[in-house]
Amino acid sequence: MKRLMYLLREAMRGLRINRANTIIGIITTAFTIASFGVFLLLYHNVRTITGSLQDQIQVIIYLDDAITNQDKSALELALKKETHIESHTFLSKEEALQDFHQQFPEEAYLLEGIGDNPLPASFIVTIAPAPQASSHVSTLATQVKTLSGVEHVRYSQDWVERVTLFSSYLEIGALSVGIILSLASVTIISNTVRLAFLARREEIEILRLIGATGTFIAIPYLIEGAVLGALGGGLSLGLLRGGFEIVRDNIRDLSWVGGVQASINFFPIQMSVMLVMAGLILGCAGSALSVYGWMKIRT
Amino acid sequence: MIQLFHVTKHYEGCIALSDLTLRVEKGECVLITGPSGAGKTTLLKLIFGAEFPDDGQILVQNRNIARLRSTDIPFLRRTMGFVLQDFKLLPHKTVYENVELPLIIRGLSSFDAKRKVSESLRAVGMDHKRATNTSVLSAGEQQRVCIARAVVNSPIILLADEPTGNLDPELTYEITELFKAINARGTTVMLATHNRQVVEQINGRMIKLDCGRLLTDQGTIS
């Protein structure tokens, strides 16, 4: 217990006496992690939006007016057999007209003078939420189009696919940037700890003299690195939150992205904790790199 | 206790120790003398595991230093004490904290550590300054604290490299008396010095080195 307290006290003393280096290390680490955080935040939101869009994918199968009951039953049977379909609803011509009047009361005049109800009957199919939902839509549409009595199939797949593609590009981007910036963080912390280590070179020699093991000597520096990384991670979280709020406020004024504001969110608490933990682990790694590298030379 | 067999050590081409064979028994007090560059410090460093011989074997408490893994060295050092001319105390810590440090490293309980530190500080006459920062102590006081730290672990061997190098004759006398007292309690003491006063005061076995070679090894001086 006394040993643990000593090691913790030494780590805190190290951070205190190298205050300037510590502050610089925390700030640089914070900006590095925040840069990665921007990608992560973007990826997180695009993924959330893509997910919600994929949950809402609907396919509308418009039927020929001359469809026979037999063809209609065959089509319904085919839809029932399809495992990727969550539900399907039949909308008769009359219901479609009623729906049109309800949804567009002011445009009702458009149908006047056309004579009989021009709107076709249809099946409204909801695809089951799944990561590959958009690809199921395209398969289903191709299959259904060949069936007798089907006039046209409409679905909003194209732009859902684009968002999905953008999301996967963003995933690769976030991963690459994450790796590069993680290495940068490790280097920054490693250098900060190395400076602290060099500043206390004589102290380390004394510890060696009185029988301290390499681990005993290294632990305060590992703690220093971990604290530095965690504080950098915490600060980066604050920077990201501030930046996020500014962006969200500005989005409110842009009409072309109306509605998006409600869908974008900051990291959930688990991801925020993970970001701080990532800082802590990177700090520890940077510190270990520096300390064990130095001790290997001195052994 | 300590055995050296044909030990040779070079530093960048210069011979620090050459074909040195030596045996030190438990409880002995050995003075290592000789001019600067004779190899006194190298000899102590080899015994302490701070350096490794280029040739020959060193047995300390039946352990071959040359074959020890680097991870075993700290544990060997915990059985020894080391006193240096420049004290090597932590200046930001108090007398008590400096002496307590080897016990923290060993993982001793607070109760035992407190008792041992008090004993050591009393033995060197520094108990009254336990709360003082070492940076404000005089040279003599710092050396006393350094000795207290070296013996707090009850070492089997105490090595001292020019422990009176920075001290006036009066302080040299006091510090030398401390080494005699430590030796009288059964600790093997090896003390490197070229101070005539220390040699005369201890009056023990004297090993004289010159240019890394053993010149004389005599029981007592006249």
Secondary structure topology:
The complex is a heterodimer of chains A (299) and B (222).
Chain A: H1 2-17, H2 19-55, E1 58-63, H3 69-81, E2 85-91, H4 93-103, E3 122-127, H5 133-145, E4 150-155, H6 157-199, H7 201-209, H8 214-252, H9 260-263, H10 269-298
Antiparallel strand pairs in A: 1-3, 1-4, 2-3
Helix pairs in contact in A: 1-2, 1-8, 2-6, 2-8, 6-8, 6-10, 8-10
Chain B: E1 2-11, E2 14-24, E3 29-33, H1 40-48, E4 55-60, E5 63-64, H2 73-77, E6 80-84, H3 95-106, H4 110-123, H5 139-151, E7 157-161, H6 169-184, E8 188-192, H7 196-202, E9 205-210, E10 213-218
Parallel strand pairs in B: 3-8, 3-9, 6-7, 7-8
Antiparallel strand pairs in B: 1-2, 1-4, 4-5, 9-10
Helix pairs in contact in B: 3-4, 3-5, 4-5, 5-6, 6-7
Description:
- The complex is a heterodimer of chains A (299) and B (222).
- Chain A is an alpha+beta fold and 299 residues long.
- Chain A has two domains: 2-53 and 163-298, no CATH class; 58-155, 2-Layer Sandwich (Alpha-Beta Plaits), CATH 3.30.70.
- Chain A contains ten helices and four strands.
- A four-stranded antiparallel sheet of chain A has the order 2-3-1-4.
- In chain A, helix 1 crosses helix 8 (214-252), helix 6 packs antiparallel against helix 8 (214-252) and helix 6 runs parallel beside helix 10 (269-298).
- The longest helix of chain A has 43 residues, at 157-199.
- Chain A is elongated.
- The two termini of chain A are 28 Å apart.
- Chain B is of the alpha/beta class and 222 residues long.
- Chain B has a single domain (24-52, 69-218), classed as Rossmann fold, CATH 3.40.50.300.
- Chain B is built from seven helices and ten strands.
- Chain B has helices spanning 40-48, 73-77, 95-106, 110-123, 139-151, 169-184, 196-202; strands spanning 2-11, 14-24, 29-33, 55-60, 63-64, 80-84, 157-161, 188-192, 205-210, 213-218.
- Chain B has a six-stranded mixed sheet, sandwiched between helices.
- Chain B is globular, with a radius of gyration of 17 Å.
- Classes of the chains: A alpha+beta (299), B alpha/beta (222).
- Chain A binds chain B through residues 1-3, 6, 13, 202-203, 205-214, 216, 299, and chain B through 70-71, 74-75, 77-78, 82, 84, 88-90, 92, 101-102, 104-110, 113, 149, 153.
